[in-house]
Amino acid sequence: MSEIQSALDALAAEDLHALTNGQTLERTASLVQLANRVAAELIRTVRHGELTQAAEHDGLRTMRSWLIGHARFAPGDASTIVRAGRVLEHLPALATGFADGEVTAAQVDVVAAKLSAAKVARAQEQGIDLGAFDQDWATIAAAASHDALKDAVELFDAALDPDGPEPDPTEGRQLWMVRHPDGSVTGRFDLDAAAGEKAQAAIESIVQASRPKGDERTRAQQNGDAFVQLCDNQLASGDLPMLRTVKPHVVVSIDLDDLVDPATGPGTADMGFGATISAARARYLACDGSISRIVMGPDGVPLDLGRDHRVVTPGLRRAVERRDGSCVFAGCRAPSHWCDVHHLVHWVHGGETNLGNSALLCERHHTKVHHGFRVERDPGGRWRTWRPDGTEILLGPLL
C-alpha cells in the first residue's frame, strides 16, 4: 500500500501543462485502467470482509454499514460495492477483466443489478450455463459500448425464463434513496409493469385533480409534488405500521430562540433522518404539528421533557375543513385531506390557535404563504390571495 501511495504522490506532482495532447490522452487511459483495478481490489476486499464478518471488529454488523460510517460512502454506493462482490464470485471471466482494468465498475454494476442470487439459483436449476454468459459479458465489456453490455445482459433474462412460470414481480422491485449534504434526496426505482401502472395511476390522480390555475411547471415538477402529496396523505391517515411504539412522522428539533426569530435561519433545525433545514422551514412545519418542549442542561443532557401536544386540535381541524372545504389559495381547490391548517399569524409570534386565525392550505401553497404570499378572509367570508409584491391574485376577467 505504501508503494501505491508513493506512486500516486509522484503522479500528483507531475506538471500536466508539459504534456502534449496525445500524452494527456495516454495518461487518461492509463489512469482509467488503474482506477478500474483499484475498484476491483476494493470490491474483492469488501467481499472478503463480508465473508469473514470483519466489520464486527469495529462493532458493526455489515461491511455496507462500515463503508457508510467509516469510509463516508453514500448508502447507495456502499450497496453497489457489496452487491458487486457477491455477483463477481459467480463470474470469474468478468472478475478477471475487472482486475486487469479492462472492465469498469459501472459495467460490473450493469451485470450485478440484473443478476440476483435468486436468478443465479434459477439458472442452476434450469441447467443454464452461466459461464457462457460470463465469457460473453467479459468480452463485450472490454470491447463494446456500455449500451451493448446492457443489451447482452437482457438476453440472460430471456434465456432464464423464455416461456416458463410467471416470475415473482416483487423480486425485481427496487427503490434507492440517497440523501445529499444539504438534506435533499435523490432517488430512482425499478418496477415491474403492473407495479409501474399502480404508481402511475396514483401519481396521475393527484396531478390531474383540481390543481392551481396557470401551473406552468414541468411535468417532472408536478410529479414530484404528487409523490410528496401521496406521502403526506398516508402519514396523515395514521394507518402506517408503528415505529418503536410511535406512528411514523416527521421529526424536527430546533432551539426556541431560532423558532421565534423571524429570520430565515439557514441550517438551524435538525430532522429525524439527519437532514438540516432552516428555521423558516421549521416554522412552516410547526404550523400544523405536535410540539414537545425539552429543557437541555449545559452539558447537552435533557433536564425536563414536556408533554407532546397538538397545535391544531382535531376539533379545530374539523371546523376549519367545514368552513373552507378545500385549499383557500386563489385558483386552487385541493381537497381538505391534502391540506395543513395554516396560522395566519404564526403561534410563535403570538397568533392564536382558533378558527379566525386558521386557513386550509395544500402543501404547495402553504409553502408559498411562508415565502411571501398572503391569504386573508374578508368580512364577507371570501378568501383573497396576495403576491409578495402586494398585488392581488384575481380570478376571471380584470375589471
Automatic annotation (TrEMBL):
InterPro entries: DUF222, HNH_nuc. Gene3D superfamilies: 1.10.30.50. Residues 315-367 form the HNH nuclease domain. It comes from the Bacteria. This is DUF222 domain-containing protein. It comes from Modestobacter muralis.
